[in-house]
Design brief:
The protein is α/β, with parallel strands linked by helices. Helices cover 30% and strands 26% of the residues. It binds ligand EPZ.
């Protein structure tokens, strides 16, 4: 297994290009199942999760080609000849469950393995199930698989979710697009990736209003066509790399970044004393050479502070001036980076969903273990300013969500290199 070695190397300067959003692409790709026409996605990120989704769609009968070094995805689902999303693929990537809604809407049936838990939590699917049952589907759990039947054609309905689940919103929107009649989803997720999905579905002929708000209305149509769609910028990659100059010092421009994608995160950076300005080409983050001020952070659904930036923010607050309290309200076990940061000298007390971080002058490099995607990158960030060398093991987690991470950081002066595993 590969590892990544980071050595504290002083202030950074230069530009980091931000790729298309993994979490948008992972819901846009299954949308190919809704149509027999070709769907082309541009600005797609070059990540292992995208390759996993390609394999899953191909196992269902879709044709998926990655072009331009993976920055363009050409998908066509003219013939779907398998309705089962196999455990072997689904267990590796929970987003595989996003084929459930489109497969059910197009073929009237779908068999999708439950993903099983992952490092950050149990990650049940009850919200997906109740959303699709609202559209008339019958769904039962057998041998670890969800067996869904549309009983002919899905029917439009009004459905309110108890929690604004991103994935359940995406499955509902894709299924309702082909249902008979009108649907209204209440307490819908408002993430930019939802907005991006709706804009793509609209290009395919879907009739949807209200994306980005908590109430989305869908007028079902009989068929959807093809489209070409540019994947929205990845706000989590953006926020992650914004913290590189915050932690290591210096000034970095994040190309493609817009404040609107990370407003709650930028508000916290401002409160901590960081300068963020929007330029013509992206966001400029300047570390004014002062120590970060401690700030309290609570993760919330969009437009609140994103849970996917919590680990990275914790890494930055480990050397802040004062004590910060981080509250993780979205996932039940998302502090696995804390013990690893403590190996580097951080002072963190975790109590359930709350972590109290008391800033220290400087962290010390150490061998650390990556546990999940965002925890892994928080350790890389911490290593940028730690004294000496940090080696992050099991970086396959990183490759799921960060394309060419070591190149992007080395290009702005960081000392980061990949060590090929045995
Ligand atoms: C999406 O996951 C993202 N993944 C996650 O990013 C992100 O952390 C999450 O949204 C929250 O923003 C993709 O888009 C591929 P949820 P999703 O359904 O859709 C509970 C990353 O690092 N829940 O909004 O699975 C669930 O257990 C990944 O890129 C239920 O209880 O998130 C969790 O506690 C990690 N029942 C909370 O809701 C359900 O049926 C949020 O889940 C579904 C979810």
């Amino acid at each position: 297994m590969d590892a990544i070695r980071v050595t504290g190397n002083g202030p950074l300067s230069g530009q980091i290009p931000i790729a298309g959003a993994k979490n948008a692409c992972l819901t846009l790709m299954p949308a190919t199942l809704l149509s027999e026409e070709p769907l082309t996605l541009t600005n797609s990120p070059r990540l292992s999760d995208i390759k996993t989704m390609k394999l899953l769609l191909e196992s269902l009968g879709s044709e998926v080609t990655l072009m331009n070094d993976g920055q363009v995805i050409a998908a066509s689902s003219h013939d779907v000849n398998n309705l089962t999303a196999d455990y072997d693929i689904v267990r590796k990537m929970r987003a595989s469950n996003l084929v459930l809604g489109p497969l059910l809407a197009r073929e009237g049936r779908a068999v999708v393995s439950l993903p099983g838990g992952c490092a950050i939590g149990a990650r049940p699917m009850d919200l997906h199930i109740s959303a699709l049952e609202a559209l008339g589907a019958e769904i039962e759990l057998k041998d670890g698989y969800l067996h869904a039947d549309a009983k002919g054609r899905l029917k439009g309905a009004v459905h309110e979710m108890r929690f604004a689940s991103v994935g359940a919103t995406e499955n509902f929107l894709m299924a309702a697009s082909l249902a008979k009649g009108t649907s209204v989803l209440k307490n819908a997720a408002r993430e930019p990736e939802i907005v991006d999905l709706v804009q793509c579905l609209r290009k395919m002929g879907a009739q949807i209003e209200g994306e980005g708000t908590s109430e989305i209305t869908i007028q079902g149509v009989d068929r959807l066509g093809g489209a070409t769609h540019r994947v929205v910028t990845d706000r989590i990659e953006l926020g992650t790399y914004m913290l590189a100059p915050v932690i290591a010092g210096g000034e970095v421009e994040l190309l493609g970044g817009r404040i609107s994608l990370v407003q709650a995160f930028v508000d916290k950076l401002h409160a901590a004393g960081v300068d963020v300005t929007e330029t013509e080409n992206g966001l400029l983050v300047k570390n004014k050479g002062e120590r970060l001020q401690a700030v309290d952070v609570t993760t919330e659904v969009f437009p609140g502070f994103p849970t996917d930036l919590q680990a990275q923010m914790m890494a930055a607050l480990c050397t802040a001036n004062g004590t910060s309290v981080l509250e993780e309200t979205i996932f039940e076990n998302r502090f696995m980076h804390a013990p690893e940061l403590m190996r580097m000298g951080a002072k963190i007390e975790v109590q359930g969903g709350t972590a109290k971080v008391t800033g220290v002058e400087r962290l010390k490099g150490a061998p650390v273990m990556a546990t999940d995607l965002r925890a892994s990158v928080s350790l890389i960030l911490a290593g940028l300013a730690a004294e000496g060398e940090t080696v992050v093991n099991r970086v396959y987690h990183l490759d799921r969500g960060y394309e060419k991470l070591e190149e992007k950081l080395a290009a702005v002066g960081a000392k980061v290199e990949r060590i090929a595993g045995e």
